[in-house]
Structure formats: structure tokens, C-alpha cells
Design goal:
The protein is α/β, with parallel strands linked by helices. It has helices at residues 44-61, 75-87, 100-112, 209-217, 251-267, 270-289, 316-319, 323-339, 366-390, and strands spanning 68-73, 93-97, 118-122, 139-143, 145-146, 151-152, 167-170, 187-191, 202-207, 231-232, 235-236, 294-296, 308-313, 356-359. The strands form 4 sheets. Strands 1-9-8-7-4-2-3 form a 7-stranded mixed β-sheet, with helices on both faces. Helix 8 (323-339) packs across helix 9 (366-390). The chain is globular, with a radius of gyration of 22 Å. The model has no long low-confidence stretch (mean pLDDT 96).
């Protein structure tokens, strides 16, 4: 193949990883100057900051007024597991999994909690299970956006408005970049590190009135760790949802989240964030449409993520190789780009098929994505030359 000259323009920000994600444009440590360091989060100043984070979350995401929003320990994982340990078991449950994180929630429910009346509906990487098979009489657990497969649900039309069960949605790489239909969602979780580029270790837990009713009327058969307990004496612990967090949060991380939320608000809110992510993903899509060696991992355009964009190498000279050699080829592309300080950590997730994963969330600049595509072609050409030489 014809040699490709090394591109002359580097992305201004090489952080295209899906976690930790790129900070907002223009971010600096000065954005954290108002953090109440050394102060208790239960002091007035700390609680005020936490209340501000919750209020801005509600405003920007459009969370209904009667839904509770809490800041909880252990990132998105902690938020999901708080919900599973506290809510699952009252009804049969349908578990949807089409990538590694969804598979993790299957393990929690089936193997850790030992729920017998659970149905697991799976699909291979790049596809969705049959959403129409979900029983509205059952609870359902699913990821809105599969971070490691690049596959998202196209909408919430498959969720019955008059459902009897609860919908428990891990939305960690969808929140702030994809429209979430809260009327169809009873539990929504996410972490700060994804679309807004915040720091991890803290999770967000959003509960509908139906989820609160379940918490107050159902007692699981298993003991709950202290950090999972959301009720006391059969009543919701309201303090969790007004800034009285269960454990001690980092006020530095809280300040960073508030800064990202204020940046989002200054852009125009959720619509502007979604537009930025869509524009970034379209830049990749336009490049893919004109590039023979690469394609999307998701099989359909309507289920492709606009945040965790997952790609596969489709060059027959590569796809004809053994699986470990295909993985090595994709890894070589990622390694070359990291060495050139073009893009960090864009290899496919360890459990996913060999390929690349490019974070295109709202904090990423479209000009950087466009610059990256030229470097992807260069790195592919370098890897292909090495492959031909070895042959």
C-alpha cells in the first residue's frame, strides 16, 4: 500500500479514553479554587455544595421534580449495586446484557444474590438482545449505553408505560450525551467521570416514586451493608438525597463536578451537550464511510453510541489472521498513537473483540476528533507495513 505521511497536526487534547474522560475545554486547576477543602461535608458549606451539585444535575438532565437524586459511594458501580441489593427480589427480573458491564450485573443478580426467577437475555458484542421480549410484569436491569461495545438502546419505546416492574438503568456513559426518558426509568445511575469528564469514586443514584415505594415496602432476604442502606424504620433516608451522603465525599471532586455542570449550563444545557457528542460521533462516521480498512463494531446505525465509539479492523489481510494476531494488530495502532502523543488508551476493552474505542463525549472537541482520523490512517498504514514485512 502507498505510504502515508505523518500528519502535521496533533489533537490539542489526546485524551480519547472512555474513563477517565477528557476534562471540559479550558479546564485548569483554577476551576477548583472554591472547593471547601478541610471542611466537613456535613458543615453548611459542604452540604450547600452537595445540594448545588444535585440541583444542577436535576436542571440539566431534566429529572422530574418528584424523583430523588443522591450522591453515593463507589462510582457508578456502587450506585448500581445499591439499587440491585436493595430492590431486586420482589418480582421476577429480566437481565439484559450485550457487553461486559451488563454481564457484571447479571453476575451480581444471579450468582451473588442468587435470584432464581431471573431471565438473562444476551447478545454478542455489536448487537442488542430482543428488547420486545422484556416482560412488563418483571423488573428489568440494563445498560442504556454499552460502554465496551459501543451499542446503545435506540430509545425507551420498548419499556411499557404501565409496567408493573421497575426499570433499573445503568446510564453511566449515556447521561448528558443521550436523551434519557425518565418516565420509563425508575432507577438511573451514572458516574461523574464519563460524559462530563469528572473524577470517579462518586456515583449518582436517581429514584422514581415507584422505586421509593419499593424501598419502603420490600425488605430483601439478605443483609445489607451500611453503605447500601437507603431506608430506616421502613422509610426512605431522605438525607441521602439532599446532600447528606452516606460516607465522606471528596469536596475537591464535588467542586470539579459542579464546574462541569456549570460549563454544561453555559453551553445551553442538555441539548448542547448531546449536539457536541453527536457532532464528534458523526466526524468518526464520515471518516469510516470513506475508509476501507475500518468499520463500526455495532451492526446497525440506530444502535451506535455517540460517546463510546467502538471500531473494528475489516481489512481482509487482518481479519484472516488468528484472533491473537488481530488483537496485536489493533494494539499496535493504539500503541503508535500513544507513542506520538496523539491518543491515549483507545484500544478495545479487554473483553471486547479486537479493535479501537474512541471517546466522543461532550468534553471532546470536534477538531480533535477530526485530527485523530488522519493519525488513525497513518498508524494503520504503519501497522500494515509491519505486517507485510513480517509476511
Amino acid at each position: 500500500m502507498t505510504a502515508i505521511a505523518k500528519p502535521g497536526v496533533l489533537p490539542a487534547n489526546p485524551n480519547f479514553s472512555s474513563g477517565p474522560c477528557a476534562k471540559r475545554p479550558g479546564w485548569s486547576l483554577d476551576a477548583l479554587r472554591d472547593a471547601p477543602l478541610g471542611r466537613s461535608h456535613r458543615a453548611k458549606i459542604g452540604k450547600t455544595k452537595l445540594e448545588q451539585a444535585i440541583a444542577l444535575t436535576r436542571e440539566i438532565l431534566g429529572v422530574p421534580a418528584d424523583y430523588r437524586i443522591g450522591i453515593v459511594p463507589a462510582s457508578d458501580t456502587g450506585a448500581v449495586e445499591m439499587a440491585l441489593w436493595s430492590l431486586i427480589g420482589a418480582r421476577p427480573v429480566d437481565l439484559l446484557a450485550w457487553e461486559s458491564f451488563g454481564e457484571g450485573w447479571v453476575t451480581d443478580v444471579v450468582k451473588q444474590l442468587g435470584i432464581k426467577n431471573a431471565r438473562t437475555m444476551t447478545a454478542p458484542y455489536g448487537e442488542l438482545p430482543d428488547l420486545s421480549a422484556v416482560d412488563p410484569e418483571h423488573d428489568v436491569v440494563f445498560t442504556w449505553n454499552g460502554t465496551t461495545s459501543g451499542v446503545r438502546v435506540p430509545n425507551a419505546d420498548w419499556i411499557a408505560a404501565d409496567r408493573k416492574g421497575l426499570t433499573i438503568c445503568d446510564a453511566t456513559s449515556a447521561a448528558f450525551a443521550q436523551p434519557l426518558d425518565f418516565a420509563k426509568l425508575d432507577v438511573v445511575t451514572f458516574s461523574w467521570q464519563k460524559v462530563l469528564g469528572g473524577e470517579a469514586a462518586h456515583g449518582m443514584l436517581i429514584l422514581s416514586p415507584r422505586a421509593v415505594e419499593r424501598l419502603e415496602t420490600y425488605k430483601p432476604a439478605w443483609p445489607l451493608p451500611k453503605i447500601f442502606r437507603m431506608t430506616k424504620g421502613g422509610k426512605l433516608i431522605e438525607g441521602i438525597f439532599v446532600g447528606e451522603t452516606i460516607n465522606t465525599p471528596s469536596m475537591l471532586c464535588v467542586e470539579d463536578y459542579i464546574d462541569a455542570l456549570q460549563w454544561a449550563k453555559s453551553l445551553g444545557g442538555l441539548k448542547a451537550l448531546i449536539a457536541r457528542a453527536d457532532a464528534n460521533a458523526k466526524t468518526i462516521a464520515d471518516w469510516v464511510a470513506n475508509t476501507a480498512w475500518v468499520d463500526f463494531l455495532p451492526v446497525r446505525a440506530d444502535i451506535r453510541s455517540n460517546t463510546s465509539v467502538c471500531l473494528k479492523v475489516v481489512d481482509p489481510a487482518v481479519t484472516g489472521l488468528p484472533a491473537d494476531a488481530q488483537a496485536a494488530f489493533a494494539k499496535q495502532i493504539a500503541t503508535l498513537l500513544e507513542k506520538e502523543k496523539v491518543a491515549y488508551d483507545i484500544g478495545a476493552y479487554r473483553d471486547a473483540p479486537p479493535g479501537l474505542r474512541i471517546w466522543c463525549g461532550a468534553t471532546v472537541e470536534q477538531t480533535d476528533v477530526a485530527a485523530l482520523t488522519h493519525w488513525l490512517d497513518w498508524a494503520y498504514a504503519q501497522a500494515k507495513a509491519s505486517l507485510n514485512k513480517a509476511a
